Structure formats: structure tokens, C-alpha cells
What does this fold into?
Amino acid sequence: MDFDFGDEFQDYFPSMMAGLGAEGFMLELCYGFQLLMDASKGVITFESLKRNCVILGLHDIGDAEIACMLMEGDLDGDGALSQMEFCSLMFRLSPGLNFDGSKQHYRME
It folds into this structure.
């Protein structure tokens, strides 16, 4: 599934990676995960994502779009996103970042 962000999407991940370094960038992704997750379950659920989309000002996102977002990143099919699934999804959705397959090397394109 590909998301079409049109002209509104600006990928800030490459500049964040350049400014923070790989370790700092990964910490920021973890903070983002914690912001969106259901604290009692430790994962991002449909309900936690829906609630936090409104808090983040994304009022126009419907239930179907939220469900699609979860499905896009849900690698184990449990209907929720773990921290690993969330971080993997963020990398896949960033057109300016490319993971080269090793554990420590990231490339900006």
C-alpha cells in the first residue's frame, strides 16, 4: 500500500538524521512511538492512534485510513504496532532515507 501525500508532504527524516545522528534519530522515533502508543498495552492500537491523531491536529483522518495505517506497519498480524514495527514503517515511508541492510549504516539519498 502506498500513501499519496501529494505536494503537502515534506520528508524531514533526512535532515533529522543529519542533525541528530543515527542514535539520536532512533531515540526520536522511539519518543514518537511512545506518544502514539496505548500505555497500558505498550503498542499502538487503533484506539490510541485515533485518539492521538486528533491531539496532533489530524482531524480529517477517518477510521478506514487509521486502519490502513495500522495494516501497513503490522508485520505480525496482531492488529497493533510494536515499537519495532513502528520504526520499520517510518523508515519505509521516508523517501529520503534508505537502510542499506547492515545494522549500523543508513544512507540519505
